[in-house]
Amino acid sequence: MVRDLHGWFVTPKEAVRIQADLASSLEFRWRERTIRTVAGIDVSVREGISRAAIAVLSFPELELVHAVTAERETTFPYISGLLTFREGPVLLEAWAKLRGQPDLVLFDGQGIAHPRRLGLAAHLGLWLDLPTIGCAKSRLYGVHEEPGQEKGCMAPLVDPKTDEPIGFVLRTRTRVKPVFVSPGHQIDLERASEFVLACCTRFRLPETTRWAHRLSRGEATVPVASPGETDF
After folding, report:
1. CB-based contact 41:102 (threshold 8 Å)
2. Whole-angstrom Cα distance, residue 170 to residue 167?
3. Which of 83, 100, 172, 189 is least surrounded, with the fewest CB atoms within 10 Å of its CB?
4. Mapping DSSP to helix (H, G, I), strand (E, B) and coil, where does residue 167 land?
């Protein structure tokens, strides 16, 4: 069940305060869950309309089993570090359409690799009360060395203010640009990277993200459930 933690129609200053207040509620203990389904989440914005897509895949097979989309007017401006306030409302609308609850959620965005430790995956992880992972295409916050060139090579992503590890820079394909992985909620750093790597096949991005990306841009259609099919 989705938790209602705050309102969405806030000023950027209020948004920063909300992030600072919520960050201490995050949990990084892995509860040894059985993961049978993993969801990918993405949002595209076109002409003032945000379109969210959630793709649910079987795990470890990575076959699409369910998908939903939702659209609404984009009301919050693009401000670095405040992405959740732009994308959160439409993502929750899409989430309400799911016919079941996935076991793990991968976001095309940051987890705790964020100036206030509350990127999109961490923030919505608290709303969804589920294990979430941020897997971003670029760095928002943190310092790191370059990982090795082979698939699976990693380098720690470190908070420059505290020297604490906040994620990993992960090579998901040999001699291809790495992705930036950080835990969101209810998962630790090592397992976050393990699951991202397990969700990657021949491409740089996880299959969850690739499906959600295509659906959010209208490049793929939402599969129709079979008669009597109620969950996954």
Report:
1. no
2. 9
3. 100
4. strand
Q: Crossing angle for the helix pair 12-22 and 120-128, nearest 10 degrees?
A: 70
DSSP designation for 228: T
Measured CA angle at 12 (ends 115, 23), to 5 deg: 40
Bond before 102 cis per omega within 30 degrees? no
**129 half-sphere exposure, CB direction, 13 A CA radius:** 5
pLDDT 10s digits, 128-166:
999 999 999 999 999 999 999 999 999 999 999 999 999
Q: What is the residue type of 59?
A: F
Domains of the chain by residue range? 12-216
Beta bridge partners of 58: 37
What's the CA gap between 104 and 133, in Å, rounded? 8
CATH class of the 12-216 domain in this structure: alpha beta
Distance of CA 100 to the CA centre of its chain: 18
pTM score of the predicted model: 0.94
Helix (H) or strand (E) segment spanning residue 65: strand 64-73
